[in-house]
Amino acid sequence: MKSILLNKINHSIQKSFIIHPKIYPQAYSLWHHHKEYEVLYFVKNSGTAYVGDKIIPYEGGTLMLFCANLPHMFVPKLYSEDNPDNGIDAYVLHFSVEIIDAMIKNIPEFKSINKLFNNWKRGMVFNTIKNNEEVFKLMQEINEGDNYKRITLFFELLNLLEMDTKFDFIASAGYVNVASLPKGRLEKVYDFSINNFSDSSICLDNVAKSINMNKAAFCRYFKKITNKTYFQFLNEIRIGNACKMLIEEENKSITDVAFLSGFNNMSNFNRQFKIIMGQSPSAFLKLRNV
After folding, report:
1. Helices (H), 129-229
2. In this structure, what CATH number is given to the domain that contains residue 27?
3. What is the pLDDT of residue 4?
4. Do the bridges between strand 72-76 and strand 89-95 make them parallel or antiparallel, or are there none, so unpaired?
5. Domain count, the chain
């Protein structure tokens, strides 16, 4: 299923961000994405969140962050047209990252927020209910405030999120084309891998040459920095791409997806998919089609 682009902010309203006090089932039981970043707090009820290439449960008190263009949808557990009160009850905040980027680049005190925004690219789910409730309280205050007060409360909210380290990433690094690699030559390795992962003939010699290292030195250096082998890293990118295709390219078979993602045999594809995703490609498809 193709992700549908939804426009969340009407910039003619002259607001940097918007908050919806309620999200109803018909609005979010739709596989969609948008250009804005999102903070979502589930007030009550429970269900299943579909985010990128992951399927995770949510309940009252769950807090999630989504970056621009990360597809997602939510299916409430007990919702029915006869009982809509068991649907999705949530607060959601949308904002344009361009506005925040301008502030971060020009105000030194805001530069620490960069790490939060880098993590945000994969989607984040926060696990500390007490901290989540503090974020929710700020979202309510932002919704009720105006002008300058909204901005100051918003940055207070970002500070709370930045300080909270008890979170899990949602989408895999391969799915969103993000890697937690330091700047410099390993950034070149990442770029090389993203541009060539579909080539099943990638070899360590070529990757090492892309940053002017020999194969043995590159392997030691990559493992030291990332705590994984290069091919573990490459397979994460390939499986992330495979998940994206399985979700969005309904006309392609699992075999098609495997070969287009850089695998030259099905047994290796199935094995790597299960290692990285914890289930087989066919089981992944079944969950997506529920």
Report:
1. 129-144, 147-163, 173-176, 185-196, 204-209, 215-226
2. 2.60.120.10
3. 59
4. unpaired
5. 2
